[in-house]
Amino acid sequence: MTRTKVVAFADDLILAIRGESVRAVEHYSNVELSKITLWSKNKIIFNEDKSKVMLVSRRKRREQREIKVYLNNKPLEQVIPMK
Fold first, then answer.
1. 17: which of 31, 44, 67, 82 lies 20 to 30 Å off by Cα?
2. For residues 63 and 39, what is the distance between their CA atoms, to the nearest angstrom?
């Protein structure tokens, strides 16, 4: 099963990750962002101030809804709606 889907258009990048729990998604997100950051070194600079995290779920779980994802060792802002 594929957990990660990357969609790029112009100067935007969406990294969609599926997991069994919020913590699993958080882990997979950080691993994948580390891979992307390593690959892009000296090619592309990702602005962590403009990058956001949004958790999308169909289930109403009782677990914590906050997700900690990092880009360039800086935590990304979590948003509920995204423009």
1. 44
2. 33
pTM for the whole structure? 0.78
Mention every residue, 6+ apart, whose C-beta is less than 8 A from residue 44: none
Instruction: Give residue-wise pLDDT tens across range 23-63.
Output: 888 899 999 989 888 888 888 888 888 888 888 877 666 65
Pairing of strands 77-78, 74-75: unpaired
The pLDDT value given to residue 76: 92
Structure token pair of residue 31: 């691993």
Q: How far is it, in rounded angstroms, from Cα 4 to Cα 50?
A: 21
DSSP state letters, 29-57: HHHHHHHHHHHHTTT----TTT-EE----
Query: b/e for 66-78, b at 16 or more Cβ within 10 A?
Result: ebebbbeeeebee
